[in-house]
C-alpha cells in the first residue's frame, strides 16, 4: 500500500470509529430529553438500531446501496455483496472497499437511530427492532444508492448522483431529510403520547443532553470530514466547515431564544449546535467557511422556530426529529444551490455566479427523498402496527416503558428504593 | 380546619391539580413518595438477578382547608385520580390545631 492510500485508510478507520461514537452520543442526547421513566428505553432504541442495522447492512443493505444498479438508478443488486461477499482483501493496495462499506453502514445506523426520537416513550421494543431492519432495506439503502453510489468503470450507480447531479457531501438527503421525514410519518401513524400538549413533558436531565450534543459533534467530524474518503485538503475543509456551522447554529438558536423567550438556554445551545451540524452535513464539502457560517446561522434560526410547529399541528414528534433533522436537512441541501463554491466543489451556486441550475437539482433531490421516505415509512409503520403492534398499552405508557419493557429503572437514588426482596436468579425464586 | 392527604398515581397528578384548581383550591404541597398496599410491587431484572421491588412510586398531596370544603375536595380528588384499577391510592382527612402564615403572622382561616 502506498503512503497516500495508507493515510486515507488510517483516516477512514478513524472516521468510522468516530461515526460509531455518534450512537452513544445520540443515546445521551435523546435520553436526557425524555422523562425519567423512559430514558433506558430511549437509549435501548438507539443501541438496538446500532446492532440490527449493522447486521442487516452487512447481509444485504450494502448490496442494495452500492451494488450494480438494477433499474433506473433506483437500487443496486441485492445479492452482489451478500454477507460482504467479495469485499475481504487483506492484501489491498488501495483504500479497502470493506472499510468504505462499513463506514457507509454506520451512516445507516445513525439515520435509523435518529427516527427513534420521533416516537419516544410509546413503542414496543421488539417491533422497533423489526422496523430498523425493514426500514434499512426498503428505505435507507435505496436512498443511499440514489445519492451516494457514483458510477465508475464497469459500475452503474444511483440517479441523483449520476443523472441529476445533485450535491450531497455527507447525507443531507439520505441521512437528515430521510430520517426527519420518516420521523414525521411514524409520529403521525402512531399518534401522540398520552397527555401530549396537556401534561408537562420536560427533558429530565439536560446535562445528559449537553454531553450527548458534545459527543455527536465530535463524532460528526468522522461523518463529514470522513466523507472526503481520504486524508486530504477536502477533508480539512469539511472539518473546518463542520466546526463552524455547529458554532453559528448554536449562536443563532440562542439569539432566537433570547429575543423570543428572554433567555438563552442550555437546551437551545445543544439543539442549535446539532441543527447547524445537520445543515452542514450535505454542504461541508461544497461551500467555503463563509458559506458554512451562513448555513449554520440559517439552520439554527429556522430550526429554533420549526420545533414549535408540532404544537400548532398536533403531531407528537417527541424529540424534534422533524424540526431539527428534516428542516435542518432541507436548509443545508437547498442552500448548496446558493452557496456552492467552485473553490471547493465542481460547481458554483446562485450567489457565486453559477445560476439557478444547481438550486433546481437540489430541490428535486430534497423533494424526492422527503416524499419517498414519508410514504414508505408511513406504510411500514402502519403495517407493523396492524400485525405486531407498535405501541405499548396505555397503562404501560403511563407507568413508564423502562419498567414494563426492560424491567429496569434508570435511577435508584433513595435508600429504600430497592424495596425489599433479595436478588434471585430465574423465575420461581423466593418472593 | 382539616388536612386532606391523598396518595395517588404520579401520572394522575396533573388531572387532579386541574380539577382542584377549577374547584378554587389555591395551593397544596406535593411530595414524591413510595409505598405499597394492595397493589404489590414489580420485578426488576439486572443481569439475570431478579429483584422483587415492593415499593411503588406515588405522589402525596397535602391540602389544609376549612371544614365545609372538605367533602367536595375529597370527592374531586377521588374522581380525578381514579382509574378503576388497584393502586389508585388513598385519601384521608385529619384535624388541624392551628395554621400560621410565616410572612404576616396571620393565623386560622386567614392563613390558609
Structure report:
The complex is a heterodimer of chains A (431) and B (112). Chain A has a single domain, classed as Ammonium transporter fold, CATH 1.10.3430. Chain A has helices spanning 3-33, 39-66, 97-115, 125-148, 159-164, 172-190, 206-225, 233-261, 266-283, 289-306, 309-313, 321-339, 357-387, 394-399, 401-406; one strand at residues 424-425. With 431 residues, chain A is mainly alpha-helical. Chain A is built from 15 helices and 1 strand. By secondary structure, chain B is an alpha+beta fold. Chain B has one domain (2-111): 2-Layer Sandwich (Alpha-Beta Plaits), CATH 3.30.70.120. In chain B, 21% of the residues lie in helices and 37% in strands. Chain B is built from 2 helices and 6 strands, in the order βαββββαβ. Chain B has helices at 13-23, 70-81; strands at residues 2-8, 29-35, 42-46, 49-53, 56-65, 89-95. In chain B, the strands form 2 sheets. Chain B has a 4-stranded antiparallel beta sheet, with helices on one face. Chain B has a two-stranded antiparallel sheet with strand order 3-4. In chain B, strand 3 and strand 4 (49-53) form a beta hairpin. Chains A and B meet through helix 14 and strand 1 of A and strand 3 and strand 4 of B. Strand 1 of chain A pairs antiparallel with strand 4 (49-53) of chain B. Chain B: Keywords: Nucleotide-binding, Phosphoprotein, Transcription, Transcription regulation. Chain B: GO terms for molecular function: ATP binding; enzyme regulator activity. Chain B: This is Nitrogen regulatory protein P-II.
Amino acid at each position: 500500500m502506498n503512503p497516500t492510500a495508507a493515510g486515507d485508510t488510517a483516516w477512514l478507520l478513524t472516521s468510522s470509529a468516530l461515526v460509531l461514537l455518534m450512537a452513544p452520543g445520540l443515546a445521551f442526547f435523546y435520553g436526557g430529553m425524555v422523562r425519567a421513566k423512559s430514558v433506558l428505553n430511549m437509549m435501548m432504541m438507539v443501541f438496538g438500531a446500532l446492532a440490527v442495522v449493522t447486521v442487516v447492512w452487512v447481509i444485504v443493505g450494502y448490496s442494495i446501496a452500492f451494488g450494480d444498479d438494477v433499474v433506473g438508478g433506483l437500487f443496486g443488486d441485492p445479492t452482489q455483496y451478500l454477507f460482504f461477499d467479495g469485499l475481504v482483501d487483506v492484501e489491498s493496495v488501495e483504500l479497502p472497499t470493506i472499510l468504505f462499506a462499513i463506514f457507509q453502514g454506520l451512516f445507516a445506523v445513525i439515520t435509523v437511530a435518529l427516527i427513534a426520537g420521533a416516537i419516544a416513550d410509546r413503542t414496543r421494543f421488539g417491533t422497533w427492532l423489526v422496523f430498523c431492519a425493514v426500514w434499512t432495506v426498503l428505505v435507507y439503502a435505496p436512498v443511499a444508492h440514489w445519492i451516494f453510489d457514483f458510477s465508475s468503470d464497469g459500475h452503474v450507480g444511483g440517479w441523483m448522483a449520476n443523472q441529476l447531479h445533485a450535491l450531497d457531501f455527507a447525507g443531507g438527503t439520505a441521512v437528515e431529510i430521510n430520517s426527519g421525514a420518516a420521523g414525521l410519518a411514524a409520529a403521525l401513524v402512531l399518534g401522540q403520547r398520552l397527555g401530549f400538549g396537556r401534561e408537562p413533558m420536560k427533558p429530565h436531565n439536560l446535562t445528559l443532553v449537553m454531553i450527548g450534543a458534545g459527543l455527536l459533534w465530535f463524532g460528526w467530524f468522522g461523518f463529514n470530514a470522513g466523507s472526503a474518503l481520504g486524508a486530504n485538503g477536502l477533508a480539512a475543509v469539511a472539518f473546518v466547515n463542520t466546526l463552524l456551522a455547529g458554532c453559528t447554529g448554536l449562536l443563532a438558536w440562542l439569539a432566537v431564544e433570547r429575543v423570543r423567550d428572554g433567555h438563552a438556554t442550555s437546551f437551545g445551545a445543544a439543539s442549535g449546535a446539532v441543527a447547524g451540524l445537520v445543515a452542514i452535513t450535505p454542504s461541508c464539502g461544497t461551500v467555503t467557511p463563509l458559506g458554512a457560517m451562513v448555513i449554520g446561522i440559517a439552520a439554527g434560526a429556522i430550526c429554533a422556530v420549526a420545533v414549535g410547529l408540532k404544537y400548532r399541528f398536533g403531531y407528537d414528534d417527541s424529540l424534534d426529529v422533524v424540526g431539527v433533522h428534516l428542516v435542518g436537512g432541507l436548509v443545508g441541501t437547498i442552500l448548496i444551490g446558493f452557496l456552492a463554491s467552485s473553490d471547493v466543489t465542481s460547481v458554483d451556486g446562485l450567489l457565486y455566479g453559477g445560476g439557478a441550475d444547481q438550486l433546481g437539482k437540489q430541490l428535486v433531490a430534497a423533494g424526492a427523498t422527503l416524499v419517498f421516505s414519508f410514504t414508505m415509512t408511513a406504510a411500514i409503520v402502519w403495517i407493523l402496527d396492524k400485525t405486531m403492534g407498535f405501541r405499548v398499552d396505555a397503562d404501560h405508557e403511563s407507568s413508564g416503558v423502562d419498567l414494563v419493557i426492560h424491567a429496569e429503572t434508570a435511577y435508584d437514588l433513595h435508600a429504600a428504593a430497592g424495596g425489599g426482596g433479595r436478588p434471585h436468579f430465574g423465575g420461581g425464586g423466593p418472593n | 380546619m382539616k388536612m386532606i392527604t391523598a396518595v395517588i398515581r404520579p401520572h394522575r397528578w396533573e388531572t387532579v391539580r386541574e380539577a382542584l384548581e377549577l374547584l378554587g383550591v389555591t395551593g397544596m404541597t406535593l411530595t414524591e413518595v413510595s409505598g405499597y398496599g394492595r397493589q404489590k410491587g414489580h420485578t426488576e431484572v439486572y443481569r439475570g438477578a431478579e429483584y422483587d421491588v415492593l415499593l411503588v412510586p406515588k405522589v402525596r398531596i397535602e391540602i389544609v382547608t376549612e371544614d365545609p370544603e372538605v367533602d367536595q375536595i375529597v370527592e374531586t380528588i377521588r374522581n380525578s385520580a381514579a382509574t378503576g384499577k388497584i393502586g389508585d391510592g388513598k385519601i384521608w382527612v385529619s384535624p388541624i390545631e392551628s395554621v400560621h402564615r410565616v410572612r404576616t403572622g396571620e393565623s386560622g382561616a386567614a392563613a390558609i
